[in-house]
Amino acid sequence: SASIVSADDSFLQCLSASIPSQLLYTQSSPSYTSVLDAAVRNPKFLTNTTRPVWIITPTNASHVQAAVLCGRRNSVRLRIRSGGHDYEGLSYRSERPEVFAVLDLVNVRSVRVDAQSGTAWVDSGATLGEMYYAIGKAGGQIAFPGGLCPTVGVGGHFSGGGFGMLLRKYGLAADNVIDAVLVDAKGRLLDKNSMGSDVFWAIRGGAGESFGIVLSWKVKLVAVPPTVTVFNIPVTVNKGAIDVLTRWQAVAPALPDDLFIRVLVQGQTASFQSLYLGTCDALLPVMRSRFPELGMNRSDCKEMTWIKSVPYIYLGSSATVEDILNRTISMDTSNKATSDYVRQVIPKDVWTTIFGWLARPNAGLMILDPYGGQIGSVPESATPFPHRGGVLYNIQYMNFWSAGGSGDAQRAWISDFYAFMAPHVSSSPREAYANYRDLDLGENVVGAGGVSGYDAGKVWGEKYFRGNYQRLAMAKGQIDPDDYFRNEQSIPPLVSGK
Ligand code: FDA
To answer: Does residue 182 have its Cβ closer than 6 Å to ligand 1?
Structure first.
């Protein structure tokens, strides 16, 4: 009801002129907590943090434009939330004291597939599961190369790159974006042409929250065969995991790009998880000639359609395609993650030491995603995502603790292990994946004029974007020189002539 608008809340009064009051929440609204917590994905961010003063749940572009104009007029910043999976929760909380509003795109989530032209318009508030489901329903042999977890939001995922089991065949989610609708810091509604080529380049992987609010993305769908083959082969250290893993590093990035084999390394087991775009009959000879060390055979194969592989791989063999529409996520554990890129094979003796780290009390896990193929053949400056030719694989480190716990021991394990890994991974800069956000890599410093500093941002920015960081800062300088859209790791503006 309109009664939530108090006389001294001029931001809310401004919003109320353009946005129905049932789409606006203050901290005293009865459903404030349930609306905010609905897309919190890490219980450690439920307490002891700065929460928004307002939540806005727009249903259309005009609401979003009004929110920006009211925000600027009243010096209230917006944090944009699509699926809420940000590893540091920056879409709905602030690390520092700040008065801000969350613009939650949960109601902006339609997916319009045009199977005829092989394209789709996908709203940012849709989940990957909703997107894949709609593509599956459209029939035909079409798919989209994005992440594995169905609850991840399209808005954040595409903004930071986005990769999954199709990355060797089709590259990143962001590589397949061909148009977008953006609301900028002046409240303008822009498309690919009107936002200009530098900004359109920047939003496809370059920390989208720095440039405005992306409402929708037009994507190119990709071709998949009627049958794909999935396998998951766990190998323990006792059964030779160290040798197989050492070999995998050279083999996996050089396989035919129809074949993707990632590794989950946890405890004393390396699990080799694969998606092959073809039948088991076609896969067997490839495995026999290219990777005999794994000892894969026919009984490991599970054949299915691509859409069925989505729940099968992430949710387990009993999950159905409908299950990928489920937006709720278990909140039993908190987690901490970070990432690395490997450009040179790690020697066998180092893997032996790594398995020692994984055997320690409070140890976490590693996920190794092989590159090569299409993701590696795109030039480094073609998109903001620079981890291309020469990368063998991405490492994600993750550790978990029960929701009530402090996580101190688990966080210490990650940071000690990350320090140990330094000589074995990319350096100068030590690369990291923007979508696995980690504030331990560095934070912005807001300087004179209330604008984030370019040099301070380099510390984390060059890890995520290498040589593309400077061009991102110039794009930011064009579209948002006042640094209205910012967080602890947004791109600082670089204004030419300054
Ligand atoms: P969220 O809403 O938290 O947004 C993330 C960031 O993007 C924030 O800074 C936010 O402000 C900004 N943003 C969001 N929507 C925006 C919009 N419309 N316009 C502008 N800025 C916007 N990654 C991957 O590549 N492959 C994978 O398989 C997985 N798997 C995975 C599993 C799980 C369980 C988690 C928690 C995360 C992943 N990820 C991943 C990482 C994921 O891609 C990353 O966290 C995305 O940024 C999440 O996007 P959301 O929209 O959900 O996050």
So the answer is: no
Examine residue 479 and state whether it is found in any structural domain, yes or no.
no
Does 429 contact ligand 1 (Cβ within 6 A)?
no
Cβ of 424 below 6 Å from ligand 1: no
- Split into its structural domains, the chain has a count of 3
pLDDT tens digits along 149-161: 999 999 999 999 9
Question: Which pLDDT band holds residue 497 (cuts at 50, 70, 90)?
Answer: low
**Residue 80: pLDDT over 60:** yes
Residue 441 placed within a domain: no
Q: State yes or no: pLDDT of 75 exceeds 90.
A: yes
Q: Is the CB of 163 under 6 A from ligand 1?
A: yes
Which CATH number covers residue 76? 3.30.43.10
Give the model's confidence band at 2: pLDDT under 50 very low, under 70 low, under 90 confident, else very high.
very low
> Ligand 1 mean position to 129 CA, how many Å?
13
Place of tokens 């900004």: 199
How remote is the CA of residue 224 from the centroid of ligand 1, in Å? 25
Predicted interface score ipTM higher than 0.85? yes
- Cα–Cα distance, 240 to 270 (Å, whole number): 10
Please give the residue range of the domain that contains residue 17.
2-107
Calculate the average pLDDT of the chain: 96
What is the pLDDT at residue 139? Answer: 87
Q: Within this chain, do residues 369 and 410 fall inside the same structural domain, yes or no? A: yes
337 part of a folded domain: yes
> Ligand 1 pocket check: which of 44, 55, 82, 275 to mutate, most ligand atoms within 8 Å of Cβ?
82
List pLDDT tens digits, range 345-364: 999 999 999 999 999 999 99
- To test the pocket of ligand 1, the residue of 55, 60, 77, 80 to mutate (highest count of ligand atoms within 8 Å of its CB) is 80
Query: What is the predicted pLDDT for the residue at 6?
Result: 63
The Å distance, Cα 295 to ligand 1 centre, comes to 36
Q: In this prediction, what percent of the chain has a pLDDT beyond 90?
A: 95
Report pLDDT for 1.
38
